[in-house]
Amino acid sequence: MEAPKSQEKLNENIALVRGLLEKQRLVETVVHSRDSRKHDLVESLVHRQHLAELQTKVGRLHAADIAHILEVLPSDDRSLIWKLMADTRGGDILLEVSDAVRGQLIDAMSSDELLAVLQQIDGDDPALGSSIILTAATDSLGFFIFLSLATVFLLH
Fold this sequence. Notes:
Elements: H1 7-33, H2 39-59, H3 63-72, H4 75-96, H5 99-107, H6 111-118, H7 126-155
Helix pairs in contact: 1-2, 1-3, 2-4, 3-4, 4-6, 5-7
């Protein structure tokens, strides 16, 4: 893996990812608009090919660079990139993203997915992993308290 890049290199990486995402949308639109007996198969193959290309190119980047890219992408694109990276690099990436983005990523994961990502975090420094666990716990607790209060107020 490469070390974190200068702002110019980060901008190049962002442009690369955005370009790949746009290319994926364009090709899938063209494939989707064509009538063919094998339409679903072709569409599925094209989609998987684009995901593999994205995963390969983004996977070569440093976790801090991936985190920066996640910070600037729209929510749908962020979710797509996160799903590609979470299984292998999720722990490192969660340590690098802002609290707001980290909260969004954690909220979108099941408890099993979150546990798998947290297990990727290097155990040498428990303070690093504990901040993510604390964020996840307070987000979840806050959500349940909010629901409880909303239920009480709505029922009275």
